[in-house]
Design a protein that fits this description.
Elements (H helix, E strand, L loop, with lengths): L2 E4 L14 E7 L5 E7 L7 E4 L2 H8 L4 E8 L3 E8 L12
Antiparallel strand pairs: 1-4, 2-3, 2-5, 3-4, 5-6
């Protein structure tokens, strides 16, 4: 299970491989939470991985929106907002 934010285009997310970075995430109207994140193993600067995917998914399942605050090269902190109101979660397999 992986949770990540990837950019299409030229943006660069600041998150160094030699130390975890902290990103802030708000699920719906709940309080903002801090998550550790790491960059890609290949050094790509357009993607970050949230290190506690299970915690993220548990919070995301009940949220209508998810706001992720990241630090961008030459643009500082920015908030990305995702509409998750109609997101369908996989149902458990029936035996």
């Amino acid at each position: 299970l992986d949770v990540y934010v990837a950019l299409n285009g030229d943006g660069q997310i600041i998150c160094r491989s030699y130390r975890n970075c902290t990103i802030r995430i708000r699920f719906g109207e709940s309080a903002q939470q801090s998550f550790s994140a790491v960059d890609a193993a290949d050094g790509s600067s357009n993607i970050v991985f949230v290190t506690n995917a299970q915690r993220f998914v548990a919070a995301a399942q009940s949220a209508d929106t998810i706001k992720v605050q990241l630090t961008f090269y030459e643009a500082g902190d920015q908030v990305l907002e995702f509409d998750t109101a109609n997101l369908e979660w996989p149902r458990p397999a029936v035996d």
